[in-house]
Amino acid sequence: MAAQNGLQSRDSIERRINALMALQDISRTLTSELDLNRLLRKIIHAAVEVLDASTGSLLIWDPADNSLVFAVTEGGEGEGETLEQRRMPADQGIAGWIFTHRQPVIVEDVSQDERFFKGIDESLGYCTSSLIGVPLMTKGEMIGVIEVLNKRSGEKFDEQDLDTLSALAAQAAIAIVNARLYSQIREERDRMLSIEEEVHKKLARDFHDGPAQTLASLIMDIEFIQKLLKRDPSKVEAELLQLKEKATKAMHQARTTMFELRPLVLETEGLKAALEYYVEQLRKTESMSIHLQIEGLEERLSHKVEDIVFAIVREALNNIKKHAQANNVWLTVIRGEKELLTTIRDDGRGFDVAEVEISYATRGSIGLLNLYERAEMLGGQIAIESAPGQGTTVSLTVPLPSTKATPGDKSPS
């Protein structure tokens, strides 16, 4: 008996050593993998292999509908492909119990466990006999569940298996968080590159539709005046006056475009001066009447607030110039005790706001999306009211600190 106990003890120690060595190798693999889908597959493959199981599943929690999604599976003679992406309520089955209670579990005979959800086995033609599962979580935040089924040897899962799987889950949870962060950074990078490309396209369009068109017209006028000098010199002076007007318009267009690229007056004198200068330049180049009202901006706001509010006003006015066909625009900026209220209203043709927002994906437009995202950066809110034939009103509300910023204040908002 003593010899048998000693043999079992040596087997147990050997199993633990092998499991620790496997976990060490797995840890290096997981920390180096940043592709989320490949990472999840490596995690479940490692769990099945290190526990010598026949199959396993990794379920990820989706907070949108409070469900557990079978993200990846391993083994099971092909049924895994059918099971992947299936959903189940986050409180259903043994996986749901593990998730809601945040506790690992060993079930030696699932047929005797009332928590076991038979529907999945029945739909796949699979027979689960024993099960071991652990929660995936990090810093108290639940990510999902790892379940491993049926040892190949036919033996039952034990506490040592539970310790091994729990250790693997702890490493896996950290790796999943890192992979998600990496994915978010890449998505943000791609989004910024897309915005940058859109800005470059917009700049090219603005130069083409503005100064470039005017300069082309100037060249044609000069060629016409050259011919008039020979044919009818008496008309040259009138043509030169028109030429001067066009050249002046081209200069204002170029200055407006340069100002939009880098509004130095915004940095040096603040939002009030920048808006006044911008509106003055627009009045020289646009046919619509722009009415400006500013109250309470005698003192500077933080640079972040000034920069983003100006960018929102500029985006809204550009949308009006391009699409509204408006005769009048009313721009109002009022600083209160606790918030800054900015309103841009026009009497143009208006549009269906809901339809435009729904069609973002197909249109590839980021105009209104830019307004919403910039407002969120300040903890503010954008409201857009419009209807075909009834003009458009863009209202921005930005919360302000209780104490006013001093002139030249560079502190972040």
Cα Rg: 33 Å
Q: Could you give the distance between the termini?
A: 75 Å
Q: What is the name of the CATH architecture of the largest domain?
A: 2-Layer Sandwich
Low-confidence stretches are: 2-8, 361-365, 404-413
Compute the number of helices. 13
The name CATH uses for the topology of the largest domain is Beta-Lactamase
Level-1 CATH class name of the largest domain: Alpha Beta
Record the strand order, biggest sheet: 3-2-1-6-5-4
Helix content: 55-70%
- The rough form would be described as elongated
The total domain count is 2
Structural class of the helices, strands and pairings? alpha+beta
Task: Please describe the biggest sheet, giving its number of strands, its sense, and whether it closes into a barrel.
Answer: 6 strands, antiparallel
Q: Give the number of DSSP strands.
A: 11
Explain what this protein looks like in three dimensions.
- The chain is an alpha+beta fold and 413 residues long.
- The protein folds into two domains: 2-187, GAF domain (Beta-Lactamase), CATH 3.30.450; 266-413, Histidine kinase-like ATPase, C-terminal domain (Heat Shock Protein 90, 2-Layer Sandwich), CATH 3.30.565.
- 55% of the residues lie in helices and 20% in strands.
- It has 13 helices and eleven strands.
- It has helices spanning 2-31, 36-50, 79-83, 93-101, 118-124, 159-231, 236-261, 264-269, 271-285, 303-324, 353-358, 360-363, 367-377, and strands at 53-62, 67-75, 87-89, 105-107, 131-138, 141-151, 289-295, 328-335, 339-346, 381-386, 392-399.
- The strands form two sheets. It has a six-stranded antiparallel sheet, sandwiched between helices. It has a five-stranded mixed sheet with strand order 7-8-9-11-10, with helices on one face.
- Helix 1 (2-31) runs parallel beside helix 6 (159-231).
- The chain is elongated.
- It starts with a helix and ends in a 14-residue tail after the last strand.
- Residues 2-8, 361-365 and 404-413 have low confidence and may be disordered.
